[in-house]
Amino acid sequence: MITSLQNPLVKQLRKLHRAKERQEQGVFLVEGTHLLEVICATDRPIATLCYTETWQLAHPQLWAQAHQRTQRAELVSPDVLRAIATTVEPDGVVLTLAHAPSPPLQLTHLGLALETIQDPGNLGTMIRTAAAVGVEGILLSEDCADWAQPKVLRASAGHGLCLPLRSTTALAAELTQYQQAGFQLVATLPTAALTYWDADFTPPTLLLLGNEGAGLSAPLAAIADIQVKIPLAPAVESLNVAIANALILYEIQRQRANASN
Fold it and tell me: Which DSSP symbol is given to 148?
């Protein structure tokens, strides 16, 4: 059992709280029983598994599943687990996963493109909603919050580990490629003339959403085929971007369900 906070593995894992270290080490932290269950439902290998004795006794089957796919498993003291985790009271298990390659998304009918979404809670919620609606993949500008940080993974309820995500330094160029392949690009702008429920979302669609404060940048808005708005009462300046994401994605789902009936 690892009991010392000075243990080299403990020091290495604590560094993963920082995005720079996650990139340099090529792995990221995943915390909690639920997210471990999500991973065990896939074929994804686990790099490192750290768990307390209490957690192991409470979850013998999940421990056995996880142990079979883990390169290194370590029993640790509760104090060590708290030091590794980012949550105040972790539930007894922390693991690391290797960053998987990020190839171009294979989209056929519905994608999401996010520019400079900076709040981890917003990003995680948007990923979770996208998964619920059936989005095939998400393009992220490089200055979005790091999707592999624990706050995003928790807010996504694990869907950030399953839904294809691609971070890109050339978001506009990649969107143009999908546009040339037959996707309509739909930008959300408060100044748009068209209300979102009046747009036709039945063709293959990529929905574009921008930064919490500034919205979409002018270059991205300019390449969109359609610009839509969400109507607001005069006293309300804007909606939370995760709420806007949910409204429009579910309108897309509604239109397509009606079209198929």
Answer: T
Backbone angles phi, psi at 148, to 5 degrees: -90, 5
Low-confidence ranges of the chain (pLDDT < 50): none
Q: Which of 150, 4, 18 is nearest to 85 (CA)?
A: 150
Strands (E), 20-137: 27-31, 46-51, 70-75, 93-98, 110-114
Integer Cα distance of 94 and 30 in angstroms = 6
pTM of the predicted model, to two decimals? 0.92
Domains belonging to the chain, first-starting first, are 8-98 (3.30.1330.30), 110-260 (3.40.1280.10)
pLDDT at 104: 87
Burial class (CB in 10 A: 0-12, 13-18, 19+), 151: middle
Percentage of the chain lying above the pLDDT 70 cut: 100
Helix (H) or strand (E) holding 56: helix 53-58
**N- to C-terminal Cα separation, the chain:** 59
| Radius of gyration for the alpha carbons in the chain, expressed in angstroms and rounded | 20
- Distance between CA atoms of 240 and 117, rounded to whole angstroms? 11
Which pLDDT belongs to residue 237?
A: 86
